[in-house]
Amino acid sequence: MTAATETDRALVDRVAKGDRAAVRLLFMRHHARVYRFVVRQTGSEMMADDIANEVFLELWRQAPGFEGRSEVSTWLLGIARFKALSLLRKKKEDWIDDDDAAQVPDSADTPEVVTMKDDKAAALRRFIDALPEEHRTVIDLAYYHGQSVTEIGEVLGIPVATVKTRMFYARKKLGQALKAAGYDKGWP
């Protein structure tokens, strides 16, 4: 089995046995996702960088206790969320604007379509940021991190039914906000 095809769980087993190369492989696979998640949770690239690195130190420490009840990516995002919330409680810092990160143009589109997408994406990000934290988090995990309802429940430590309810109300609020701002459904 090559490193590229080795499962995350197999890599965690290797980490539990002290294999530093397995930590590096998991870092390469999951660092960007963990980092983006923490940036959205904290609003700070600097905090996200520190927390993302701490998540992989925690992976090293906790690998022997990993029971495999969830996907490794879900487990890592749960660790990241806990660390982000802990740090936010302890520390206040200047917040940054994520609009630049949300405006990556698609080179296949015309400049007009790119502008329309950028405008709608920025508006959508503002509307998501305005949601209550419990709704914002489920939207972020589902749409920006591709987590399933079950995985979101595991990351947040809440029942699946609660995740579904929060998703329903978050989408409803986003739809109302987009409609009120004059945006059509769908993407340009």
Automatic annotation (TrEMBL):
CDD domains: Sigma70_r4. One of its GO terms (biological process) is DNA-templated transcription initiation. Keywords: Sigma factor, Transcription, Transcription regulation. Gene3D superfamilies: 1.10.1740.10, Winged helix-like DNA-binding domain superfamily/Winged helix DNA-binding domain (1.10.10.10). Residues 26-92 form the RNA polymerase sigma-70 region domain. InterPro entries: RNA_pol_sigma-70-like, RNA_pol_sigma-70_dom, RNA_pol_sigma70_r2, RNA_pol_sigma70_r4_t2, RNA_pol_sigma_r2, RNA_pol_sigma_r3/r4-like, WH-like_DNA-bd_sf. Belongs to the sigma-70 factor family. ECF subfamily. This is Sigma-70 family RNA polymerase sigma factor.
